[in-house]
Amino acid sequence: MTTTVATNKLLEVKNLGVDYSAANGTVHAVIDVSFTLERGKVLGLAGESGSGKSTLAYAITRLLRPPALITGGKVIYYPEPIEKSNGAKHAKNNAWELDAPTDILQCSPQQLRAFRWDTMAIVFQSAMNALNPVMNIGAQIMDVLQTHRPEMGPDARRIRAIELLKLVGIAPDRLRSYPHELSGGMRQRAVIAIALALNPEIIIMDEPTTALDVVVQREILTEIMQLSKEFGFSVIFITHDLSLLLELADNVAIMYAGRIVEYASQDDLYSHPRHPYSYGLLNSFPTLYGPRLKMAGIPGTPPDLRAIPSGCAFHPRCPLAFEPCNRVLPILQPLNMADSEQSSLVACHLYDARFREEPPGTEEIGTHYAALAERSERS
Ligand code: SF4
């Protein structure tokens, strides 16, 4: 099932699955994941560590290596219509069938080379690992330009590298600095500059600011969002910190045990988290405003992906689990089945008329979590 009715599709992930084969069992890291990314939008992917977020990003970019194996699905890129792109994208991507939607998972190595960086770039978790320690920052930016824009001469490459550094807030005199000479924040900005080098349409950010202090994190994220608006690129932003996504993302997908369990606009998710796991994630960080409430947290730990619980994978931790949860797999579906334009989706039996007449309100979910917190405090 496609997770949203998109008017301006850029990327569509359909029923994607990824396994890691290990001697002690197969790890099902991504299971039947579908979503759509629209042009110019920010899609947030949130979930605890081990929920499959990063594996999903690597699968989309075809950067997975054995023992990871894509078990099925499609990642369809929709090129911009010729009349809208002014031919610019077409001129630079001559290895690419730009007029037709293309499944990235079926691309030849030549098409993949044209796709990566040109159309889709990725910013990795650790800038220190992403940068080459023995090349200065300028050389690393110019290296990307030389490979993908062979028509650019050395002067043009240098001018573009300076322009990119300025864009991400690094002084041009840092062009000759090596990664170890830069602060953590500057290194992450340099990685973002490299990702922006070829004006991609999609940037995947995999926990890009996790290692930074909150002040630098805020500065960088604000800049990324400004750049996204200025240049019109779309972002898939991966983080375990749901509070960040509530500020940055247009839509948010919550992942648990390799599946998307809720998909909603940032507003809707904040005001009405439907899935008990989303509620737990949202209430795992304190609010700055409003009454002081006891933090409930989510009991237990994420499941072993080699032996995912039957039915709803969240049922051993869910304060609202009821009879069908341990035996029937909930399907991600619109909250109101009669309304096909409804963009909020949830995979939970509480919203399935076969199992429960009236769906719960946010207060009911909160009451169950509060009761759980009280019980664990007493014990
Ligand atoms: Fe909880 Fe059942 Fe919903 Fe899963 S399906 S989140 S166990 S209520």
Characterization of the model:
By secondary structure, the chain is an alpha/beta fold. Helices cover 32% and strands 20% of the residues. It has helices spanning 53-60, 82-85, 88-92, 109-115, 127-130, 137-148, 154-167, 184-196, 214-231, 242-248, 266-271, 276-282, 362-378, and strands at 9-22, 25-38, 42-46, 68-77, 102-103, 120-123, 202-206, 234-239, 251-256, 259-265, 333-334, 345-346. The protein has an eight-stranded mixed β-sheet, sandwiched between helices. Helix 7 crosses helix 8. It is globular, with a radius of gyration of 22 Å. Residues 1-6 have low confidence and may be disordered.
Poorly predicted spans:
1-6
Distance from first to last alpha carbon: 43 Å
Q: Calculate Rg over CA atoms.
A: 22 Å
Structural class: alpha/beta
Bound ligands, each once: iron/sulfur cluster
Mean pLDDT: 87
What topology does this entry show?
Blueprint: E1 9-22, E2 25-38, E3 42-46, H1 53-60, E4 68-77, H2 82-85, H3 88-92, E5 102-103, H4 109-115, E6 120-123, H5 127-130, H6 137-148, H7 154-167, H8 184-196, E7 202-206, H9 214-231, E8 234-239, H10 242-248, E9 251-256, E10 259-265, H11 266-271, H12 276-282, E11 333-334, E12 345-346, H13 362-378
Parallel strand pairs: 3-8, 3-9, 6-7, 7-8
Antiparallel strand pairs: 1-2, 1-4, 4-5, 9-10, 10-12, 11-12
Give a quick precis of the structure.
The chain has 379 residues and is of the alpha/beta class. The chain is built from 13 helices and 12 strands. Helix content is 32%, strand content 20%.
